[in-house]
Amino acid sequence: ALYLMGTRPRFDSYGRLCGAELIPLEELGRPRIDVVMTLSGIFRDLLALQTRMLAEAAWLAASADEPDDMNFVRKHALAQQAQSGCDLETASLRVFTNADGAYGANVNQMIDASCWTDENELAEAYQSRKCFAYGRKGPPMRQSAVLEGILKTVDLTYQGLDSVELGVTTIDHYVDTLGGITKAVKRARGVDVPIYISDQTQGDGKIRTLAEQVTFETHTRMLNPRWYEGLLSHGYEGVRQIEAQVTNTMGWSATTGQVQPWVYQKISETYVLDDAMRQRMAALNPKASARMANRLLEAHARNYWQPDSATLEALRNASDELEDNLEGIAAAAA
């Protein structure tokens, strides 16, 4: 983020981080790129100096007397200032997070609880929770209009991965943050924007689109016997984690639309429509098994995939069986 804005860390005479400084355009050799940063609550709590450094970097770029075509931070800040009548300090805010004491955008919780009807509700949840801006000094302040104005200028969204243990479908944090801001950008702009994942987990980094990353993780995790057998060896918790992976996958459909329909088909065939696997998982964790089947049906109901009539009927029957098993109902013998 610093380098995109054409800035770098600034250290005092004791070698301590104390802020940011501009890289001269002559040295940079390209325009300054505008960046909006959304921080987790934990990042906000633990890394106060880095948060202030990012805010100062945005201010320095916005206040630099440079041509608009060489400084998009300044270009957009001046446009925001002209539109809303705010001062340049406010228009240059680029670091957003939750209010003090609050964590997350709640997009993940809404998806997990299925308590939404329109995808724009997810965007609204994200913006209302993540609209608190950090400037160069003082506590974060609610700046809904500034965030809305910045979102209208976003050309792409991005997330870095730095742990081989975690993927974008493994935990719901990524859906909550990257999925949330991507949906908010679409609502603000009215169009989809590209979504990129930077995989820095092994050797040279690889850049994938979100659709490519979901496909990659589906093959290497959800449909990989070495992966799911390892989880199933952990019994109850393993089934819960497999179910969470399905929920997170549907979360990407809800926030970005970047999940191919075949993903749901293959997950259904592997875990729910296979009699032996379904019964095995139900014995280990009946609640998570029923949730998984219902989540796949929810994905169909929300038009994220359209299975053929035979598959849909089999999925519904399997869901009914799992629900009966969860409630302790057994079919009577003939």
Quick take:
54% of the residues lie in helices and 10% in strands. It has 16 helices and nine strands.
Describe the structure.
The protein is of the alpha/beta class and 334 residues long. Helix content is 54%, strand content 10%. The chain contains 16 helices and nine strands. The protein has helices at residues 25-28, 41-46, 48-63, 72-84, 88-91, 107-113, 120-129, 144-151, 173-189, 210-222, 225-232, 236-255, 261-272, 275-284, 286-301, 309-326; strands at residues 7-11, 17-22, 37-38, 95-97, 132-134, 141-142, 157-161, 195-199, 206-209. The protein has a four-stranded mixed beta sheet with strand order 3-4-5-6. A three-stranded mixed beta sheet has the order 7-8-9. Strands 1-2 form a two-stranded antiparallel sheet. Helix 3 (48-63) crosses helix 4 (72-84). It is elongated, with a radius of gyration of 23 Å.
Shape: elongated
Structural class: alpha/beta
Order of helices and strands: EEHEHHHHEHHEEHEHEEHHHHHHH
Q: Count every helix, treating DSSP H or I runs of 4 or more residues as helices.
A: 16
Task: Output the radius of gyration.
Answer: 23 Å
SSE layout and pairing:
Layout: E1 7-11, E2 17-22, H1 25-28, E3 37-38, H2 41-46, H3 48-63, H4 72-84, H5 88-91, E4 95-97, H6 107-113, H7 120-129, E5 132-134, E6 141-142, H8 144-151, E7 157-161, H9 173-189, E8 195-199, E9 206-209, H10 210-222, H11 225-232, H12 236-255, H13 261-272, H14 275-284, H15 286-301, H16 309-326
Parallel strand pairs: 3-4, 7-8
Antiparallel strand pairs: 1-2, 4-5, 5-6, 8-9
